């Protein structure tokens, strides 16, 4: 059976969820965006409006296209509104308990043919799938920040994923203008497994006093030709997400190189989470 995926639910409209909703709506699909309460829903609407207005200002989209794109998105605080979705993507915080609760709700609410996907950066897709009565229809669909710009989607299948579903999700990613890679279910998948080791190591270098924040960022950016240095990128990803991914990698691998650097923990405890809170390694006034 080849699915059509015309109506897509996105649960969680933070930085990633709002970006994912934008990507689907831009490809002409109907999107149902769900947040926990009106305040969070308002913030999600704000992300979408800012991001699409920027595209208009840069001449990548007309005002009419922006209105049509936003018109394809319904905003709601009720998970029950996902009953008719063909696909639901979860983009809530990286806390397994929250994900399990959400997936058992989705399993109850969504139609039997619906595919349930998680945008988790590091948690076990298999464990999330196991909370549902349809583990064969649960996959990982992992986007990168900023989702409207970054071309990659990691498609994660588990030992129980239905044959052919990963290929259908990869086709869907292509329809969104992305390039999919197919990955097995191991903490961090490919990108975060490699990336967080490096970012955590950069925090260790900063703590050791080898070089300062600006010099490390400049060294990597100019010496390796990457678009951002490690501290700029940590602020973009969010220090809470980065910390959580390091924790999961450390728990799974027992490799001390993945033990989150103390400076990351300090920033997270202080609520300095990067761009999204206005301050992390840098300040964003
Ligand atoms: N939303 C929508 N569009 C955005 C955007 C956003 N948040 N941020 C930037 N853009 C767009 C800009 O509008 C611009 O578009 P045009 O070229 O059409 O004008 C384009 O992206 C380039 O942006 P800028 O000129 O403002 O700045 P830049 O050239 O420095 O690019 C960047 C910004 C794309 C973010 C670039 O710096 C970059 O690629 N950085 C690395 C990002 C990265 O590594 N992401 C992966 C993080 S890991 C992850 O996400 C996984 C995880 O699970 C933790």
Automatic annotation (TrEMBL):
<feature type="domain" description="3-hydroxyacyl-CoA dehydrogenase C-terminal">
    <location>
        <begin position="188"/>
        <end position="284"/>
    </location>
</feature>
<dbReference type="GO" id="GO:0006635">
    <property type="term" value="P:fatty acid beta-oxidation"/>
</dbReference>
<keyword id="KW-0560">Oxidoreductase</keyword>
<dbReference type="GO" id="GO:0070403">
    <property type="term" value="F:NAD+ binding"/>
</dbReference>
<comment type="pathway">
    <text>Lipid metabolism; butanoate metabolism.</text>
</comment>
<protein>
    <submittedName>
        <fullName>3-hydroxybutyryl-CoA dehydrogenase</fullName>
    </submittedName>
</protein>
<feature type="domain" description="3-hydroxyacyl-CoA dehydrogenase NAD binding">
    <location>
        <begin position="7"/>
        <end position="185"/>
    </location>
</feature>
<comment type="similarity">
    <text>Belongs to the 3-hydroxyacyl-CoA dehydrogenase family.</text>
</comment>
<dbReference type="GO" id="GO:0008691">
    <property type="term" value="F:3-hydroxybutyryl-CoA dehydrogenase activity"/>
</dbReference>
